[in-house]
Amino acid sequence: MHEKPNEADENVQTYAESHIIDPNSLVSRVLRELYDSVQNEAIPERFLDLLEKLDMAENSAKATENP
Amino acid sequence: MNDTVESDKRRFKRELLAALPNLRAFAVSLVGRHDRADDLVQDTIMKAWAKQDSFEIGTNIKAWLIKILLNSFYSQMRKNGREVQDSDGILTERLSVHPAQHGALDLQDFRMALNTLPPDQREAIILVGASGFSYEEAAEICTCAVGTIKSRVSRARQRLQEILGVSGESDYGPDAASTAVTSRPVTNSPL
Known about the structure:
The complex is a heterodimer. By secondary structure, chain A is mainly α.
């Protein structure tokens, strides 16, 4: 009934993985700091405009298809 | 029926908008420069919009967008040749006389160090270390084996630690040994 030979393997793997990238290491923290600093910026206008234009282009294409 | 299509479109647009800050963060971390990163994001938005029918609502749009962005990134790189590399080691030299002090690192230095990594390593460490993807998800995004991602992340981390002169331990605050080595005066220190 010992059908869980993988369990030990999984534990080993999790341990190894947690040491590939220690979330508290300086490198990890600064990487996240860099990432978050950009992520917290407001979405630039150019992208909002672009989505607006894509939306409008689609709607006007539809209007010509089914007048 | 048309209403469903309509609401799917609206939902797609909403999800796309919500994922944009994350996509930009990924792009800027990967490319190292806001202007080039934003061009890449713009390109990704247009491609994503054009193929929105292939996106399954309810699946991870962040992963889907990053995949599109990476495709553009690598095809641009193939077209333009290699990125500017730190061929003279100037950056590495500058950074080695500017080591991390007391568990703090200058964000700009970190950015430059990140940029010296090969793009596949950069991509891997950002996906796993900052975007919050699992190794399996990252492997899916990069269309490579999980083991490949793991070794890229590990090499990236080691290289960054070398360049920046920091250890891999959970290093809150200075430890005695490294403080002694790094106690030379540093210009531009954030402290």
